[in-house]
Every structure is written in structure tokens, then in C-alpha cells.
Fold:
Amino acid sequence: MPAEKPLYALTGLELLDLIKQKKIGIADILESQSLRTKAVEGKVKAFARFTDNTTSGIPIAVKDNICIQGQPTTCASKILENFIPPYDATVIQRLKNAGFIIQGQTNMDEFAFGSSCENSAFFPTRNPWNLDCVPGGSSGGSAAAVAGDEAVWALGSDTGGSIRQPASFCGVVGLKPTYGRVSRYGLIAFASSLDQIGPLTKDVRDNAYLTSIISGHDPRDSTSLNLPVGDYLKSLEKDIKGIKIGVPKEYFSLSANAGLEGLDGEVKEAVEEAIAQLRKLGAVVSEVSLPHTEYAVGVYYIVATAEASSNLARFDGVQYGLRVRSADNLIAMYKKTRQAGFGPEAKRRIILGTYVLSHGYYEAYYVRALKVRALIARDFTEAFKEYDCIVTPTSPTTAFGLGEKLENPLAMYLSDVYTISANLAGVPAISVPCGFSKKGLPIGLQITAKAFDEEMLFRTAYNYEQATPWHKLKPKI
Amino acid sequence: MYETVIGLEVHAQLKTRTKAFCGCLNEFGAPANTRTCPVCLGFPGSLPVLNEMAFEHGMKAALALNCQIQNFTKFDRKHYFYPDLPKNYQISQYDLPLALDGGLKIKIKDREKTIPVKRVHLEEDAGKLIHEGEGSLVDYNRAGVPLLEIVTEPEIHSPDEAYEYLSELKAILKYLEVSDCDMEKGSLRCDANISLRLIGAEKLGTKTELKNMNSFKAVREALNYEIKRQTGILESGQRIIQETLLWDEVSAKTVAMRSKEEAMDYRYFTEPDLPGFVLTEEKIKAVKDNLPELPQALKQRFIRDYGLSDYDVEILAQEKRVADYFEACFKIYPQAKSISNWLIGPLSYELNSRNLDIQSLGLKPPELTTLISFVDQDKISNLSAKEVLTARLNSKKTVEEIIQEKDLLQICDSGELSAIIDAVISANQKSVQDYSSGKANALMFLVGQVMRQSKGKANPKVAQEMLKEKLTNV
Amino acid sequence: MIISKDDVLKVANLARIELNQEELNLFSGQLESVLEFIAKLKKADVSSVKPMSHILDIQNVLRADIPGESLPNALVLKNAPESLKGHFRVPKVIE
Structure:
């Protein structure tokens, strides 16, 4: 145990271990955490708000789109300002039952619309590794809080990469569980067929531990599967000798097709080194094809915005949240409230989603996207017949500069190119640190496995992590 | 020279304990916004889970309407902004509804006809909007109550057919116990579309949609009104405008709704929060095999097994509970016609005047059959029996106690009666002679005298028989 | 051009969002480029698949018809911008 490290710098399981050995108490953790937050939060701005807790427990940070009874939960949107849910999300209940307290709610792109955390109605969050860079998004606040040691661990949500991409940008571990593994009850929906809640942690062990706490069947979520939850910590004990890893060629030759600046050379190099490391650990690596990869972003921005336009229809100033009072009739009230309450990206996505569902465009856009989604899901089914997991970069680049992509939504959308497919196919994927750019920005390795095989992800990620130094490095803030 | 073409869309609230997608009570008349939770309020983060009873009720109704239950069915979101719709979309069914292609047999002027049922689907009800002053108040107690939508093909050809279809549909839903079908409480609602076309024409005319009809009678009246209105327009060479009209009960007219700002575009898509439903043939058969007897079958059986008339059966079968009551009585006292007469006559009068249904009336079948048997055995008069029924319902006393207390037993004992008759004959020789000379009225006079002498307790029928016999023997 | 400013206005109205001129100009251009990108889906051969609405292979998720808890009226209305006599209140509805 690295006793010389301050408590805030330890992982969750390290802290739990010290508590078990009665070397520290929960109050010590909270005090250390509080000092750290005071020191760096002014620079990082990871939190939307902190909560006053009457009870004591292991602190965790939660993204501002997961309902907490009696606490404002706003999705970093003006339209939900002052909204206080009368109930706890299922994951919050599970955390509370396991002895956690919510230390605060983390900043995010409004309604999880974005990849940079700049679409927050509050303020942008900054990357602890370089305060001029974005932390990624939409769970940027959660990733930055964990990377900056402001939180031991955190929950985020992932609809198209919103946990994994910020994890990659901030050098932490982020898991998007299998669709149906973790209850969505109480997660303010962005795209219901894609959303999953997942943990962002300092290392793979913490991630496995948290996942085992939040996973499992919930009768309040019809899409939550009634399958036993694996012993994720135990899965870490196995080595990866002989496991079959596929590397999709399309992910490395995507630039020409996708029309984006392409896979960054340093990222490519780091991922290739990681693959070499996995080989060294005994994995059998070969090339696999996911032929419909080039359509993923297009499919995603149809399906996700269509569902979002529907999910966000309820924010209308009638029951909760913002109401613009200058309107003298109902329709005007709706329109002015939604104009004032939603930020530009929310408006863009609602309009796009409404458009692809509207009369005359539904077949050409929405139905076609659902068909291509089936092709993408089939790619994964085929690949997992032969491979235990698939390894790719998490993001084509390292963290970009604040403001760099804000005016170009398409470029922002294309930064999700590697993470989107897992949501479309419903399969689990994890991002683990796999190196740094010359400028000192973290790079993430994405590992994807077949549905409900989180064990394989943790096992592979853990073996890789333990063989590399990346997770031990800390940013200087 | 015009043919009327009508299609009906019925919404029936399903009788479940809880709402369609949450555990809130499905209950009419509770204080505003007290039967609501995050799910039916559409609060951020809440998710729906379908009530299995709503689903089963829907299947029962669809099967009773002879529809094809689909092997795969799913829910869709129907979008429009309105404050009674908490999520601004309604969970409904669009392209893969629960059931398709059924039909409902109706009788219209002694002719049978099948009204084709196009589709049956499940959806959630909206809340209630009360307009008050410069704004509106919203109560979401009704939001999320399960609804069954039943749509006919446009193959109803008169307001009377529409009326019959609705009556039969209501009877079926009530027999199945899947809906209260109480239009006053809004648990059954009906919209109609209607168009006219020249007889023999193939193409349908432009239709109007009629809403806001609060009874089956109102549906019939509104359709009749609309036929006249459309005929007038067509005969003056003008065109019908496709629009939605509201029936105004007071002025007995249809009035146009103020035109919508834009054409509706509901942007249906599959509800991602609810996985689909697979219904195997076995499951469908199991529900079908457990369907209760439906009105048509019950009517046939009553005619066949009890020898009752069509007229009687139509009335008895209107309410399943009345039909059941009839059968319970018959088991104790197998006199179908008497029981039927009593149910249709005096008992029905009591139910109406007390505004009760047969279950809440508190009269057990053996009590009624005891009373009927007294009448049938001439122990009390019909008139007295009605008095007994009323008295019984107003008190806790038994039928027998009341008869005794009111001294209503008729004199049927031939010895006692014989003595009275002999006395009447000897005291009224003039009338006896009149009778012998063929004046039939004289007999009635003598019966009257017997009744008077017996203080009204003689059984008039028995008295008359005995008188006749004695006079013939004089 | 795939989407005109008129289209954007029409759709925004359907979604009950008012747009000012600046927003309209900005969004129209941005949506155009996104739709241009999305147009590549036309190339995909979708003849062998059905539209995929649900990714999970599960069906028949139902709950028993057993009452659960409703919220007290005060909590229902706690977040309401405007309420009256136990109801939510909204401005005048004009059809």
C-alpha cells in the first residue's frame, strides 16, 4: 500500500481496504476529498453542484442526469433548472444500499448531447491533464473529477461513447455495460435504445467492483435483463493466454471514408503498442472485419436524435422546470419555454430527430437507419462467433482544445466514430488508458466483448493494465 | 339516393386495478393528482412496464370480437403536444396492433349483419383538462389508464346500425368484465366518421369526423344530423370539407372545431422502452378457451333451454348479472316464464327507481322465487306480491313475514270459500237468474260480491270457478 | 440542398421550439452538412434485414396488476411552475 500517497489519490478499493483494516475512517476520506476539491475544482470545474449529506458513506460522484431524490437533477440544462426528482434512480438506490453517499453531481453536455462537455448550461469542464483542453463528453465532469482525484469514482452515462471517450481523454477507466445490464430507471433519457449507465474509475478493479454493485435486473425497467450478475472482481484473476482478439481493419482505415481528419498517428501508435502488449500476455490477435462501420455515425445521428426528440418533448414548462411566463397562450408558452430552455445543440438534435421522423422522411431516414443498425449489430454477432473481444482506439484523437469543434457539429459527431457501434449493437465496451501523446494527453484503448460478457472485458483490461504504467500516472493541476 | 358510410372508433377504459404502465390505482373520482407517480406523470427518468391484466383484457376483447390476435405485437409512441399528455407522446400501437380483422354480428330489423372490426389495440389514456378563467387546470389521475381502441371498417350504413353495433359491443365488453363501459364516467367513448356517396358509387365520399358524443343516443342523433347536413351540401352542388366536428348536445348540431394550426404529424416510432410481445397459438387458445359465454350465445341458449321469447331474452341478456340472476332463480324454482316476467317487470322497476343494480339490491334469488311461487300457487295476488317486494326491499323482514303481517294470503280453501259463495248466491237471486239467462256480466257481479264478503282475500280466479260450478248445478 | 430554411422552421414548429433568425440561419447550414453526411446510408445494402428497434432479444415483459405507491399531491406539484387547487395550471389553450 502506497502509504505516502494522500487518501484522495487512492483507488476506491484501496480505501475500502484501509477502512476494513481500521487504518482510516470514512471521515478521513471525506476530509481528504474535500481538501483536494478545494484545491483543484476552481480550475477543473467538474461538478455542477455538491450535495449536503446528512449521512456518512463512501463518496461517489454522479452525472447530473441520474435522478436523486430531493436533490436538483438538471442534465446541465436551463430547462430543468430547479427540478428536484421525487425519487431515486435504481442505481442510486443500489449505491445507497451498498453504503455510498453522493458527494456531488458532475457537469455534462446538456442532456448528454456532446463530446466535449462544452454544451453545458453551467460552464465547460476542463481536462485535468491540460486545462485548455476539453475533458470529452458527455460525461466529462465525471471523467475529470476522477482524473483530478476530486472523486474516488463516478457514474456516467453512455449513449454513443459518453463514458468511454471522456475516460480516454482524461486517462481513466470507463465502462459502457451491455444494454440491459444496468437499470435505466431514473436516468433522464437521451436515446432510450442506446443509453446505459456505467462507472468511471481510476483503475479496472474499481470499475469491476462498481459495475457489480449497479448491475442487475430491475422490474421497473422493461429493458433490464433478468440475468445473473457475474463475479466481476473474480474475473480479474484469470490471465488472457489464448483468448482471441480481433482488430477491425475498418477502424484503422476509416479516415478516407468518414471524411474526418482521421486517426491520429500517436493514437494509432499507442493502440498498436497496446495490441503488441496483449500478444505478449498470450492473447491471439488477428484482423477482423466489421464491414458496416462506416455507417455507424450516420445511423447513430438518426436513431439517437429521433429518440431524443421524443424523450425531450416532455420538457414543456407544464409540470416542472423552466416556464417562460410572457406567453399568453399555451402554444406560445411551449415554444418560448423550449427556445429559452434548450441550448443550441439540444435544439439542433431535437430538430434533426423531429425531421427524420416526420411525414415523408421517416422511411428514407429513420427506417433505413434501423435497417443499417441491424447490419452493424450483425457484424458484431459474426465477429464474436470467432473472437472473445475486439480491440480498437477509443477515440481517433486525444483531447482537443476548448472551442475547437464547437462551431462544427459534424466534426464533433465524428469524434464518436469508434464508440458509437457498441451502443448500436448493445454490446459492452471499456476504455482503459494505453499511453500519452507527446503533449502529455492520455490515449485510450477500447475493448469490446459480446453482450453480457463484461467478465471478458474486465479480465482483458485488467491484464493489460497491470502490465503497463499508465493508470498510475497523475495529472499536475 | 345517397348511401351513408360510417366508421366507428371506440375507446374503452380497461377495468384493471392499476394503470397500464405503473402501479397507480385505476380509479375514477379521486382528488386531482393523487393517483399519480413519476411514471404516469412522465417525470424525467421514469419508465413504463406493461400491466399484464390490461394485456389480457385486450386479448379477451379482441377474441370476443373474432379478431386475429397477432403473433407479434408492440407499442409505439404517438407524438403531439397537449397538456393532458404528460410526455407529449402517447404510448399506443401503430403498425403492429394487438389484433386485426374481426367482426361483430348485430341484428337490425330482424336481419343479421356483421360489422367488420378492422383493428383492436392498447394504449394509455390522457389526463383531464378543466378550462377555468384565463387558463386550464390539469389532473393526471386518468393519465396512463389502459384503453382499448376498437376501430370498425367504414361499413356501417345507418345511424341505427351504429347504435346497434355500440350496444352489442358494450354488452360484450361488460360480459367479459373488461370494461365498465360507463359513458357518463368516460369509460367508454366513441368517435365516428361519416361520408355519403351516390348509391352504386365505388369511391368513398369526403368524410367528416364527429366527436364529443356522450351517449349512444347522441351518436345516433349526431349521425342523423350529419347525414342531413351533408345531403344538403351535396344537393346544392357544393363539396364536403374534411374536418372534425363536435356534437353539441344542447343545440343538437355539429359544430366545426377551430381549424388546427398545422396538419397532424404524429411521428410514430416503436416505443424503445417496451420490448415487443410474442403470442403463441397456445397462449391465444388458452385465453380463447377461457372466454366466458358471450351475449349472442347466451341468448340462443336461453331461448333453447328455457323456452323464453326473443323479446324476453333480449332484455334479460342486456346485463350479464341479470341473466345470471335469472339462472340462479331457475335452479331453485324452474318456472322460466314467471321468473322472466318478474325480472323484466316488477324487479326492473324497483332497480330503476332505486338506481341500483341487481347485485347491490340485496334480494337473494330464493327470496324472489318464494315470492313468485306464492303468486303462481294463487296464494297471494299479483298486486299484493308487488307490495310485498317493495316492503321486502325497504325492510329486513322476510317475504313470509310480510305476507303474514299484511294478511295478504288469499282464501283458496274450498270449504271457507264455498260458504261465502253459498251466501252470495242466496242473497243475489236476481243475478243468478240473469246468469242463467245468458247475461255474462252477472257472473262478474257475483264474483265482486264474493270478493267483498271475503274482504278481498278470496282468490278471484278460484272464486269464479267455484261460482260457475255452483250456478250450473243450481 | 436537402433541407431548406422553411423545412427547418416547419420542423421546429412541430417540435414546439421557437427559432430566431440567427438560430435559423445557423442551424439550417449545420443540419444541411449533417444530412449530407447521413446521406451515405443510401449506399448500404439493406435488402437482407428488418428494421431493428430493440437490440435486446427479450419479449413479453409484464408486471402483475398490483397497486404500487402514488405520490402525495404536494410532491406531485412541488416542481410545478404554476398550480391551483391540486392541479397543474397552464395558459389558455388555443386550438
DSSP finds 16 helices and eleven strands in chain A. Chain A touches chain B at residues 66-67, 73, 75, 80, 83, 85-87, 89, 184-189, 191-193, 219-223, 306-307, 309-310, 313-316, 318-320, 330-331, 334, 354, 357-359, 362, 366 (CB under 8 Å). The longest strand of chain A covers residues 429-436. Chain A has a mean pLDDT of 95.
